[in-house]
Design brief:
single chain, D15-like, three-stranded mixed β-sheet, Ubiquitin-like (UB roll), 6 domains, 18% helix, alpha+beta, globular, transmembrane beta strand, signal, 818 residues, 16-stranded antiparallel β-sheet, 42 strands
């Protein structure tokens, strides 16, 4: 027993001794490890570098001699050096007091090449990629470039484009980076389906959005390119469409675009919940700011009880009230609309509450994303600038103005805190789009001497040199006509909302009763008086030269006298009959001039050549149209006068006016009604007789179914113009049944009535049609919103006319809605 006990104690002593020894060894190891983890660095050794200086790499490490460096700090050095983009591999270790930094440098990019691309130019792709010549090559960056190129192809409708990247060694640690592109076919939009709509048809809703189903003309119009941002924008477009038509509870439940790779086509489904339709209930203004007369502000409201609810009317009312507050000295007044729904009666009562808002000022406007458009072009659309009181309503109005410019794909405005608590930074982010257009148009005119093909080519830039200026150059060619035009507009003349510009034109015609060449131009200035009312003044200059149908152009005869072939002077003013049936040119050469032989009016034209008109004019334009290009609601009324007599030969006053009213007659079927009327008068100034070419020449522009100069006073069958005109027109347009609206075709039915009357030559031999005899016609039309511009075909049957009128029942050409 005693012996066993002794053995156990010995074993225990051995175990205890071993435990102590193990603990001592472990402690020593931990001490060593700790020393390694945070050893003092006395020097940094750089290895593997050839182009990058060792000192530069040491600076990137941010490690100083005498510093204790842990493993975590070594890992941070690795991350920091990788972030420079200069190295493909970095390893950091420590040997005693030496920190060893081993690097493998990236290769230098010699060239960036694109192969297989034809739809997108090299310059555009170069701007999209991050890899650039003379920069460091990074495989991660190159792969990101692949994604960027793929996105560029998706944006032009080629989602199945395949992009790969390869490198080519060229020596001296340099490499060519080659992006290989298989562009593939255009990715189409096979269908756009809208689910859940009852108030409006699919075709009506699809007409409001930007995305279009692929069709025969999609390769020209390019509106069938799917883009997620465009789909999100179309969602907002649908919301506004419904909100402005009474559906305040409308929401887009979902919008899904599915790509069928076998067909290379998208199938888009938009699911909506329309909700109920509301009208406005009671509309009140409640101000908590002393000194504000709420009753005086009701005239600023666009919302009326009983009318269909419209979010746009609420927004316009907010802007009007905010501007009124600012003009009255309440810069920080804040207008908040509060709606109260009555679900039983389906009304929304609006209470505009005016409170004293927080005192906040705009510290600065920060504009981002504009690569072409100058900053000041964007800034001038804001009614607030640095240092002004911050007002959210005015900021949103500026956003709408920027979108209306059509310079940008997307405009977003956000805010950030400024340097002080009462300062706000307004951040404007824009995505630019192409603003230049090349237009090619063609048509065919029928009837009269002008029958034949017509063509027009034009180049338009709406944001010239990024300055927001408009410029257009165009030329038109017909069977017997030539037209050349140049137009330029600066929308913010002298830094104010004054649109200044000029137009220059030249037209040549060898058709009709005589040849003519007209050269002229104008300088104009337009200023907005209100949001809807604009005033314009202009100086106009025009020189007209006339000749016979043989191509001879005649200059003015001495002392305005006619001379016969024998050189005899007739003591009469130009325009007197020519009994010898001839006229002469300035060299005394006789020129037999049928059909002028019995027309003193045409003799007048030739003996007055060249004829100069120098005038000033003004006009007022009242425009409430909902869409300038395709109106459905609103008025446009314009009227003005032209005074000629500032030098030149003309001496008259012309007064003209025109009004058009558009009304959506049926929302579901998109039937649009239009009523129009116009009128004019020209009178002489200074007591002189009115010259024939200062008169109005009218025809199909006021009563369709007649020739260009088909109605009004005539002498021996030749149009001599009239001193007065008036007309009225009624028209309804509608989509063609069984034809997709995406093709842009609409039908029309119309009725016109009007007259052209009055002449200084009333009672002269052979003159007829000086009375105000009514002409009237009715007809049908086909309108096509083509990629080349709006084209229109009309057939009009005149059912009230005079025997001497000239008819043109069928016409084809460019269309204008007002």
């Amino acid at each position: 027993m005693m012996a066993g006990t002794k053995i156990l104690r010995t074993a225990s002593a051995i175990v205890l001794s071993s435990t102590v020894l193990a603990a001592t060894t472990l402690g020593a190891q931990l001490a060593v490890i700790t020393a390694v983890e945070a050893a003092v660095v006395s020097r940094i050794e750089v290895r593997g570098n050839s182009r990058v200086e060792a000192e530069t790499i040491r600076n990137f490490t941010r490690i100083q001699a005498g510093q204790n460096v842990s493993e975590a700090e070594q890992d941070e050095v690795v991350r920091r050096l990788f972030a420079t983009g200069l190295f493909s591999d970095v390893r950091v270790s420590q040997s005693g007091g030496t920190l060893v930094v081993q690097v493998d440098e990236n290769q230098i990019v010699n060239q960036v090449l694109f192969q297989g691309n034809s739809k997108i130019k090299d310059e555009q792709l170069m701007a999209a990629v991050q890899t650039q010549p003379r920069g460091a090559y990074s495989s991660a960056t190159a792969q990101a470039d692949v994604d960027a190129i793929s996105a560029a192809y998706t944006s032009i409708g080629r989602s199945d484009a395949v992009v790969t990247v390869t490198t080519q060694q060229v020596g001296e640690n340099r490499v060519n980076v080659i992006y290989n592109i298989q562009e593939g076919d255009r990715t189409k939009i096979a269908s756009i389906s809208i689910v859940g709509n009852n108030a409006f048809s699919d075709s009506r809703l699809k007409q409001t959005i930007a995305l279009r189903e692929s069709g025969l003309l999609s390769f020209i119009q390019r509106d069938d390119i799917y883009d997620e941002d465009r789909l999100r924008t179309d969602e907002e477009t649908l919301r506004r469409f419904y909100f402005n038509r009474g559906y305040a509870d409308f929401r887009v439940v979902s919008s899904v675009a599915e790509l069928d790779e076998t067909q290379n086509s998208y199938f888009i489904t938009i699911t909506v919940d329309e909700g109920e339709r509301y009208t406005f209930g009671n509309v009140v203004i409640d101000s908590t700011i002393p000194g504000i007369d709420s009753e005086a502000l009701y005239s600023e409201l666009e919302t009326r009880p009983g009318e269909v609810y419209s979010a746009k009317d609420v927004e316009d009312s907010l802007v009007n009230l905010t501007n009124s507050m600012a003009n009255a000295g309440f810069a920080f007044a804040q207008v908040t609309p509060r709606g109260d729904r009555d679900f039983t009666n389906r009304t929304i009562a609006i209470n505009y509450v005016i409170d004293q808002g927080p005192r906040a000022y705009v510290e600065r406007l920060e504009i981002r994303g504009n690569t072409k458009t100058r900053d000041y072009v964007i800034r001038r659309e804001f009614d607030v600038s640095e240092g002004d009181a911050f007002n959210q309503v005015l900021i949103q109005r500026a956003k709408q103005r920027l979108e209306d410019l059509k310079f940008f794909e997307k405009v977003s405005i956000s805010t950030a805190p400024g340097a002080e608590p009462d300062r706000v930074i307004v951040i404007v982010d824009v995505v630019e789009k192409a603003t230049g257009e090349l237009s090619l148009g063609g048509g065919y005119t029928t009837g009269g001497d002008n029958a034949g093909p017509v063509a027009e080519v034009g180049i338009t830039e709406r944001n010239f040199l990024g300055r927001g200026q408009f410029i257009k150059v165009s030329a038109g060619f017909g069977k017997d006509t030539r037209n050349y035009n140049l137009s330029f507009t600066e929308p913010y003349f002298l830094g104010r909302r004054l649109a200044a510009g000029f137009d220059v034109y030249r037209s040549e015609s060898t058709s009709g009763d005589y040849d003519s060449v007209r050269t002229g131009g104008d300088v104009r200035l337009a200023a907005p008086i209100t949001e809807d009312l604009t005033a314009q003044i202009a100086y106009n200059y025009k020189q007209e030269e006339f000749g016979d149908n043989n191509g001879t152009t005649y200059n003015r005869f001495t002392e305005s006298q006619l001379i016969d072939g024998s050189g005899n002077v007739f003591e009469s003013t130009c325009g007197a009959p020519n009994p010898n049936n001839n006229i002469v040119d300035p060299n005394g050469n006789a020129a037999l001039a049928p059909p002028y032989t019995d027309s003193p009016i045409i003799n007048l034209a030739i003996c007055e050549s060249p004829y100069i008109t120098s005038s000033v004019s003004y006009s007022l334009i009242y425009n409430t149209l909902d869409n300038a290009n395709d109106p459905r609601e609103g008025f446009i009324i314009q009227g003005g006068q032209e005074f000629a007599g500032l030098g030149g030969d003309a001496n008259f006053i012309k007064t003209t006016g025109k009004a058009s009213y558009f009304k959506l007659l049926n929302e579901e079927y998109d039937v649009i009604g239009q009523l129009s009327s116009s009128g004019g008068n020209v009178s002489t100034l200074g007591g002189d007789d009115l010259r024939v070419f200062d008169s109005f020449f009218k025809g199909q522009d006021i009563v369709r179914g007649f020739d260009y100069k088909g109605i009004g006073p005539r002498q021996n069958g030749v149009s001599i113009g009239g001193t007065n005109y008036a007309n009225a027109s009624a028209e309804a347009t509608f989509p063609l049944p069984l034809i997709s609206r995406d093709y842009g075709f609409r039908g029309a039915v119309f009725a016109d009535a009007g007259s052209l009357w009055g002449s200084e030559f009333e009672g002269a031999p052979g003159v007829v049609g000086t009375d105000a005899a009514l002409r009237a016609s009715a007809g049908v039309g086909l309108i096509w919103a083509s990629p080349f511009g709006p084209l229109r075909v009309n057939y009009a049957h005149p059912f009230v006319k005079e025997d001497f009128d000239e008819l043109q029942e069928f016409s084809f050409g460019f269309s204008s809605r007002f």
